[in-house]
Every structure is written in C-alpha cells, then in structure tokens.
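Forgive a beginner's question, but would it be possible to get a protein, spelled out as residues, together with the matching structure tokens, please?
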Amino acid sequence: MDRIQDPEVRTLAKKSSCLAAEYPELEDDQWNKSPFNWIRCLPPRTKGAIGERLVADYLACKGFDVTRSPDGQADRIIAGHRAEIKMSMLWKNGTYKFQQIRDQNYEFAIFLGISPFDAHCWVLPKADIIDRIKTEDIPHQHGGRDGTDTAWLTINPNDVQAWLSAFGGRLECVVGLIAKITGQKP
C-alpha cells in the first residue's frame, strides 16, 4: 500500500484486500513460488513467444541445431526440419489447452505444457495432427462454416488420451522423439 499515493486508490486497494480474504483459492494459489508464475500475467502472444524460446533453448542445450524460421509458417527450424511450437499453462480444471493449431508449412509440432512445478511435452508429426483433426480427436477451435482454420488440443496430463502415448508426455521423452523425426543425434 505504501506505493499507492492517491488516497482514493488507497481506499479502493484496501477494499480489494478485504475482498481477497473471501477468495481462499487466491491465497492458496498452486502457482505461488512457481518458477513459471511470471509467465501467467503476460499477453497470449508474449506467452507464445516465451514458449517458443523455452523450447528452442531447451533443445539447443540438448545438442540440437535450432534456428528461427525464416517465415511465419513455422516457429523454428530444428536440425533442418520445420517445427511449430505451442505452449499451454495448466488451466484451473487441470488440463492444457493448445490453441490456434493450423495447417501451415511445418513438419512437426511441439506441444509444451507448463504446470506450476512440472512440465509435459508431446511431439506430433503434422500428418498425425491433420488426421486427428479429421477424426475430431483434435477438434476445431471455432464453430460454423468459417471456423475450420484453427483447432485446439486439450490434454489432461493425469489422464492422457491413449492415442497420444506414442508422442510423449514427460519432458524427458522429447529429445528422443525429435531425434527420431529429424535424424539428428543430440
């Protein structure tokens, strides 16, 4: 409160503090002290860029050759292969929701799920993504005739769909899956 100079704002802040006591889930927030908590308050586009950097930096430290894509059709070039990167932070309902999945020029997609004190990852070849959109395992994000250009993938890390098991889950699986797709040994 010391940083608030305006007396009216101070009054409002005091009222806000009183209301906060009525919402115990805020006091016991699962993200408290998480090394990823700072990401939550950022705009979606910034979160996406951070997800791309986290994946790129992680894979580079594992020995992969990672560069930025020269166009907007993929996020990174990993060992010479075009990759799309999606990140989701754990939703309150315990799921990850990877959004804005499109049919663009990439060979595989990396889905990074960030929990307060854990991370999950799946690596799917684009052909599998397109097949799963057709079977509605990955549903369209928007309804209507014009809503078929984007899809979203919802994953509960504690109850992963059986068809996803071959594509990862634990972060430790990612290196092997990407090595298999790209042919680069880290």
Observations:
- The helical segments are 7-20, 24-27, 44-61, 126-134, 174-182.
- The first helix runs from residue 7 to 20.
- DSSP finds five helices and eight strands in the chain.
- The first strand starts at residue 66 and ends at 68.
